[in-house]
């Protein structure tokens, strides 16, 4: 039994990817979701601010 499987699909305009269950979600790009078979589900969320890069903050008191 294989521990991992590899899937690929073509998509344009991806801005960020985050796992939500078994889907990859592009939250910055409006909530588009991609299943492992490449099926895309569009969402109608539009964030008004243009994000240019991720930010990381140091822990306070750590």
Q: What percent of the residues sit in helical stretches (DSSP H or I)?
A: under 10%
Average pLDDT: 79
Number of strands: 4
Query: Which class do the helix and strand fractions yield?
Result: mainly beta
**Alpha-carbon distance between the termini?**
43 Å
**Which band does the percent of strand residues land in?**
15-25%
Radius of gyration, taken over Cα atoms and rounded to an integer in Å? 15 Å
Shape by Cα distribution: extended
Question: Numbering strands along the chain, what is their spatial order in the largest sheet?
Answer: 1-2-3-4
Main sheet summary: 4 strands, antiparallel
Please, could you describe this protein's structure?
The chain has 62 residues and is mainly β. 0% of the residues lie in helices and 19% in strands. It has no helices and four strands. It has a four-stranded antiparallel sheet, with no helix packed on it. It is extended, with a radius of gyration of 15 Å. 2% of the residues are buried. The mean pLDDT is 79.
Topology overview:
Elements: E1 18-20, E2 23-26, E3 32-34, E4 40-41
Antiparallel strand pairs: 1-2, 2-3, 3-4
In brief:
The protein has 62 residues and is an all-beta fold.
Keywords for this structure?
single chain, 62 residues, mainly beta, 4-stranded antiparallel beta sheet, 4 strands, 0% helix, 19% strand, extended
């Amino acid at each position: 039994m294989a521990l991992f499987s590899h899937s690929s699909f073509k998509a344009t305009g991806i801005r960020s990817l985050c796992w939500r269950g078994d889907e990859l979600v592009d939250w910055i790009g409006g909530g588009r979701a991609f299943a492992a078979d490449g099926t895309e589900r569009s969402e109608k969320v539009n964030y008004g601010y243009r994000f240019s890069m991720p930010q990381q903050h140091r822990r306070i008191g750590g």
